[in-house]
Specification:
The complex is a heterodimer of chains A (about 325) and B (about 260).
Chain A: H1 3-13, H2 29-51, H3 57-64, H4 67-98, H5 103-118, H6 121-129, H7 131-134, E1 137-141, E2 147-152, H8 153-156, H9 159-184, H10 188-196, H11 201-231, H12 243-254, H13 257-286, H14 298-323
Antiparallel strand pairs in A: 1-2
Chain B: E1 7-16, E2 19-29, E3 34-38, H1 45-52, E4 60-65, E5 68-69, E6 72-75, E7 78-81, H2 84-91, E8 94-97, H3 109-119, H4 125-138, H5 154-166, E9 172-176, H6 184-199, E10 203-207, H7 211-217, E11 220-225, E12 228-233, H8 235-240, H9 245-254
Parallel strand pairs in B: 3-10, 3-11, 8-9, 9-10
Antiparallel strand pairs in B: 1-2, 1-4, 4-5, 6-7, 11-12
The chains are: A mainly alpha (about 325), B alpha/beta (about 260).
The complex binds adenosine-5'-diphosphate (ADP) and magnesium ion.
């Protein structure tokens, strides 16, 4: 009888005299060895950084919060946020267009993606900046008909708008592909279910499909944002002063190249840190219902404890710097 | 008029490319009745259900739900396809339960159930929530309202899916193999909910391989094969005295 052994086993488990045995989690000596090696490498880096006078830490400190650096930093952050906002919004629209059953709409989106991914961003930036050479005046109206509104191109296309347009419009092409793969990852059954409840296409997209697609979309978008943070330095070609441009303007004058590059690195890393925490927060938010709760190991718990505290401090630091 | 049937199919044909999946299907399902749809895989059962709420467009014939065309409007002897928003309005009256549940995984059981009443019917959150809690209680899931689908068993997910469909207060419920994806010990709990729903007078079309359920609950049983309705009858007539060879050979395999 197959039932018998199981009954007898469960019988003994509940018998009163039985010892409740504790489980001992597996030790990971390899991880501790890795920790030791990493600590050693880190310590030697710190030692060299503090002993070598060529780093000129006093110069770094002098410029870290100086006005031109902070202005450059705020421009870099503005450009990153502005062009990613345009890129993401455009990416969603283009992705939905590409998936449209209407061939004219989907082809239009494909052509856009082809053009804006194909032309170097540097060229796009210059093109937008010198738009007035092509169209001295920008007007809104009916093609071949009367114009309703007309403005001088050089008034509208400043360095900032040229920079945001150049970076954002090409980013939209990349984001479109990321969003599209996210949308395609959602099972078609979700659409059927939403339709059968009387939900219309746009409502389904907004409430059912996109929230699930976001789980797939967020990690590569985090990559794109951090990439964009550094790509903003390309605006040097249209003489806009982002962080790196401000730094290079100073060291061209003072020849303190290394310490000023360190200043730039510190700020880029600080902003990247903030972005990474924003990303993991968003990932948690949209992972609801997907992520099984997992008990972290001891190392992970320690890291979370240490890292979270220093990260919060870093975040307030940056916020304070941005305001100044 | 009380004698308008809930579903009336007259010569309904459906093609995917060159493959004819439904071939001139005629079927009438009166109000308040439960019809079970049987047939081998690929017979077109799912496709027929999906045509009823216009998830698929039919190529020929007429398909009426409660006396109205699905997805079309009659005018001057012609049928005009309706705009998406009118189709959506009609779909609210037809609930559908899928083989793989298709719950929204990013929403809890309660959120799944109140989503459409709030967003589609414009109910307030309070009234939608009140009815959702009643429905979740009715399907035996009062203790699972805040669970995400991934935290529920298949049987529990399917019961949430039934509650979600009922929350729109439909007059017709379509079930496409609601228990086929479930472990055998979970089939009973879902069939119990469906049995209760049938008793309450809901008109139901159920594609199923649960012959016991069909025999017990159905008012009529429809046997489909190769896109055609082969035989229709009361459960007793169809199970005990099938008229067609196709029906006999199918039943001999599944009973
Ligand atoms: N979207 C589709 N595109 C092409 N063929 C399809 C599609 N859906 C179903 N079919 C075909 O239609 C036939 C009937 O399918 P279906 O209605 O799912 O049968 P059943 O539910 O009875 O098993 C099958 O041969 C299937 O391959
Ligand atoms: Mg099927």
């Amino acid at each position: 009888m197959p039932a018998d052994p199981s009954t007898s086993r469960s019988g003994s488990a509940t018998s009163p005299g039985r010892l409740v045995r504790k489980t001992v989690p597996l030790r990971h000596p390899g991880r501790w060895a890795a920790v030791a090696i990493i600590a050693l490498v880190f310590a030697s880096l710190v030692a060299s950084a503090s002993a070598n006078p060529n780093y000129q830490w006093n110069v770094v400190w002098h410029y870290l919060f100086s006005a031109p650096i902070l202005t450059g930093l705020s421009h870099t952050v503005e450009l990153t946020v502005g062009s990613m906002a345009i890129g993401i919004a455009l990416g969603i629209v283009l992705a939905v267009m590409r998936l449209s059953p209407n061939p004219v709409i989907s082809t239009a989106a494909s052509v856009y993606i082809w053009v804006f991914r194909g032309i170097p961003v540097l060229v796009q930036l210059l093109f937008w900046y010198f738009l007035s050479a092509l169209f001295p005046r920008l007007s809104i109206g009916i093609p071949f008909g009367p114009s309703l509104l007309s403005v001088d191109t050089n008034h509208v296309i400043t360095q900032l708008t040229a920079a945001i347009l150049g970076l954002g419009l090409s980013e939209g092409a990349y984001m479109a592909e990321i969003v599209r793969s996210g949308i395609l990852s959602v099972s078609p059954g979700q659409n059927d279910a939403a339709k059968s409840l009387g939900m219309k296409g746009l409502l389904t997209m907004r409430r059912i499909v996109l929230p699930q697609a976001l789980r797939i979309i967020i990690p590569p978008t985090g990559n794109e944002t951090i990439g964009m943070l550094k790509n903003t330095s390309m605006v040097i070609v249209i003489a806009y002063t982002d962080l790196l441009t401000s730094v290079s303007l100073i060291y061209a004058r003072t020849y303190e190249t290394i310490p000023l590059l360190i200043v730039a690195c510190i700020w880029y890393l600080a902003v990247t840190t903030v972005l990474m925490f924003v990303q993991s927060g968003i990932e948690r938010r949209f992972g609801r219902g997907f992520m099984p709760r997992r008990e972290p190991g001891r190392l992970a718990r320690t890291r979370a404890r240490l890292f979270n505290r220093s990260a919060t401090a870093g975040a307030t630091h940056v916020a304070g710097g941005g305001d100044a | 008029m009380p004698d308008i049937p809930m579903v009336q199919a007259i010569g309904v044909s459906k093609r995917f490319g060159h493959i004819e999946v439904l071939k001139a299907v005629d079927l009438t399902i009166p109000k308040g009745e439960v019809a079970c749809l049987l047939g081998p895989s690929g017979a077109g059962k799912s496709t027929f259900l999906r045509c009823i709420n216009h998830l698929e467009k039919i190529n020929e014939g007429e398909l009426l739900v409660d006396g109205e065309f699905v997805g079309y409007r009659e005018h001057g002897g012609k049928l005009y396809e309706l705009h998406e928003r009118h189709i959506a309005r009609k779909r609210r009256e037809i609930g559908m339960v899928f083989q793989h549940f298709n719950l929204f995984p990013h929403m809890t059981a309660l959120q799944n159930t109140i989503e459409a009443p709030i967003r589609v019917n414009g109910e307030t959150k309070a009234e939608a929530k009140k009815r959702a809690l009643e429905l979740l209680h009715r399907v035996g899931l009062s203790d699972k309202v805040d669970s995400y689908p991934a935290e529920l068993s298949g049987g529990q997910q399917q019961r949430v899916a039934i509650a979600r469909a009922l929350a729109m207060q439909p007059k017709l419920m379509l079930f496409d193999e609601p228990t086929s994806a479930l472990d055998p010990e979970l089939v009973g709990e879902v069939l119990d909910v469906m049995r209760g729903l049938a008793k309450s007078g809901m008109t139901m079309i159920v594609v199923t391989h649960e012959m016991g359920f069909a025999r017990e609950v159905a008012d009529s049983v429809v046997f489909m094969a190769d896109g055609m309705v082969v035989e229709t009858g009361s459960p007793a007539a169809l199970f005990d005295n099938p008229q067609h060879e196709r029906t006999r050979s199918f039943l001999s395999k599944v009973l």
